[in-house]
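Quick one from the shared queue. A colleague (R.T.) flagged Adenine phosphoribosyltransferase as missing a structural entry in our internal table.

Convert sequence to structure tokens.
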Amino acid sequence: MAPTAPRAELTRAESLIREVPDYPSAGILFRDITPLLADGRAFRETVDALIAPFRGAFDVVAGLEARGFLLASAAAYASGAGLMPIRKAGKLPRPAAHVEYALEYGDAEVEAHADFPRGSRVLLIDDVLATGGTLVAAHTLLGELGYAAAGTAVLFEIAGLGGREAVGDPTLHTVFRS
């Protein structure tokens, strides 16, 4: 396992995540990660911390649309792994496996192509874990494609919303938590 960033570096990185009240709607506290992405050193330390517990245990990094793509791309590059985008329905150019899931305000669907050999070990990465619905659907999608979930890594977990319990992945790793 690769060493993780010193706690001081991660504390600085976390301080770059801005809270934006009432976005995208009233009552929501949005976590804006763009200042973190803009700081090269903090971004590198964060990506290293995101994948550290899983080094050597995955072949592919899957990122969930949209901000999960940014983190997963960096993680795939840093680890030498392949990259698998998990998209919202209707965004992929050729036939894809798909899974529908429930949201607080309706239904949604995620999809992905079967571009990797069956049995590939996939590390799922997303930016924020709230209620966990998208990650649960992504885990189901991996199973339908014949891939093995190597773990789940999330940049920021919002505690108290039940996401960790919903995902039910004992390997779930978060870098920051509220």
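The chain is about 30% helix and 35% strand.
Residues 55-177 form a domain with the Rossmann fold fold (CATH 3.40.50.2020).
Added to the table.
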